[in-house]
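chain below, 204 aa
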Amino acid sequence: MKIIAIIDYGMCNLDSVARAVEKSGALPIITDESQIIENAEAIILPGVGAFSEAMKELEARSLVSVLCKQVLKQQIPFLGICLGMQLMAEKGYEGGETVGLGLIPGEVIHFECENKDIRIPHIGWNEVDQSKQSLLFNEIPDHSDFYFVHSYHFSCSEKYVIGRTQYCDGFISSIQHHNCFGVQFHPEKSQKVGLQLLKNFCSC
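prediction:
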C-alpha cells in the first residue's frame, strides 16, 4: 500500500482528504514532520485560506525546504489541492505579495471578471475541460464536474495547463509539470470523479 504524506500546516481540516486517499487504496499519513515526508512515496498539499498566511505556516514548520527537496530533487509525486495548488506558484498576492514554493513557474492572482454580475468567490460545481492528456484524468470523462471554492487563480504558461474551467472569463483549474500536479478544485468533495482523480495520483 502506497504511503501518501498529507501536509498539515494548520490551514484546513485534513480528515476528508485522508479518508478519500484511503478509499483510493493508499495509506494516508497526516503530518508536519520532515522525516515522515522524506519517507513518503507521494505528497499531497491541501489548503483553504490565504496564500500569505499559508506560506508563513509552512515556513514556521520548516516545511518549505523539505517539500522542495522531495519534489524537485527526489522527483516524488506531488499534488496541490485548492490553496495547495496555488502555493506551487512562484508568488501570490492574497494577503500581500508573497513568495511561493516555486514548483511551477507562475503567479496567483485575484479574479477580475468583465461581467460584474458573476459572483466571487467562485463556489460550487463546475466543469473541468481537459486541455491535454494527463495521468491525473485517466478514466475521467472530459467536462466532468468538480467542486470549487476560491477567489484567486493560478496564471502560468500554457505548457503547464492540463485543465480549464469556464467561469469569470475562464481560468486554469489544473496543472502539471513532470511529477507535480495541481488542481484548483477539491477532489475529496467531488464524489466519484474526485475519488478517481486521487486514485490516479496515488498510482503515479
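The two ends are 13 Å apart (CA to CA). The domain at 3-202 is CATH 3.40.50.880 (Rossmann fold).
thats it, cya
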